[in-house]
Amino acid sequence: AQTVTQSQPEMSVQEAETVTLSCTYDTSESDYYLFWYKQPPSRQMILVIRQEAYKQQNATENRFSVNFQKAAKSFSLKISDSQLGDAAMYFCAYRSEVGTYKYIFGTGTRLKVLA
Amino acid sequence: DAGVIQSPRHEVTEMGQEVTLRCKPISGHNSLFWYRQTMMRGLELLIYFNNNVPIDDSGMPEDRFSAKMPNASFSTLKIQPSEPRDSAVYFCASSRAAAAGTQYFGPGTRLTVL
């Protein structure tokens, strides 16, 4: 069975600085998808970024980028030029390419942004 | 496009009462998911539907919980009878399998059972 691990329960970053959130996963599959979701205090789950495992290139969305290391089964999220609005819980998720459409979520990392 | 719509946004009820949570997925999405989020257990998948058919309900905690999807644009999650330990935020999410299965979440329903 697949597992997703976020080993950092909480992180802090100064406004305008860069922070990296870690995520590792375990799977025997070769094709899958990985996601980062943001959950601000409003509790709405918002998709931040998505990575297809078959793509070598790391996904980017504006100030958000990932470092996808398939062999190491690592999928970290880098937030550049951090803003106060980035403060939230961040969840890493795994989805198989075939069969079930279920996500496997990590336990989340709470990001605090300091002014 | 409208996102996933959930109602009510907040529900406060007394133990033993029936609670019904509602979800309207994004038009054109063929998969629908119900999650529960608590501090203790994090985000748990309760059940998911594909083309209105329940595929996996192994996350449903017990017989007091039931879910239906009578058509492609509506789903309900019912708790009968409710208990204080059911207090949580319940999310509905939908996805279109062809689009890499990205799930889009509704705003959630905060349920408090007194």
How would you sum up this structure, described in words?
The complex is a heterodimer of chains A (115) and B (114). Chain A has strands at residues 3-5, 10-14, 19-21, 24-26, 32-39, 46-52, 60-61, 64-69, 74-79, 88-96, 103-105, 109-114. Chain A has no helices and 12 strands. In chain A, the strands form 3 sheets. In chain A, strands 2, 5, 6, 10, 11 and 12 form a 6-stranded mixed beta sheet that branches. Chain A has a 4-stranded antiparallel beta sheet with strand order 3-9-8-7, with no helix packed on it. Chain A has a two-stranded antiparallel sheet with strand order 1-4. By secondary structure, chain A is mainly beta. Chain B is an all-beta fold and 114 residues long. Chain B contains no helices and 11 strands. Chain B has strands at 5-7, 10-13, 19-24, 31-38, 42-50, 53-56, 65-71, 74-79, 88-95, 104-105, 109-113. The N and C termini of chain B lie far apart (37 Å). Classes of the chains: A mainly beta (115), B mainly beta (114). Chains A and B meet through strand 5 and strand 6 of A and strand 4, strand 5, strand 9 and strand 10 of B.
Write the layout of secondary structure elements.
The complex is a heterodimer of chains A (115) and B (114).
Chain A: E1 3-5, E2 10-14, E3 19-21, E4 24-26, E5 32-39, E6 46-52, E7 60-61, E8 64-69, E9 74-79, E10 88-96, E11 103-105, E12 109-114
Parallel strand pairs in A: 2-12
Antiparallel strand pairs in A: 1-4, 3-9, 5-6, 5-10, 7-8, 8-9, 10-11, 10-12
Chain B: E1 5-7, E2 10-13, E3 19-24, E4 31-38, E5 42-50, E6 53-56, E7 65-71, E8 74-79, E9 88-95, E10 104-105, E11 109-113
Parallel strand pairs in B: 2-11
Antiparallel strand pairs in B: 1-3, 3-8, 4-5, 4-9, 5-6, 7-8, 9-10, 9-11
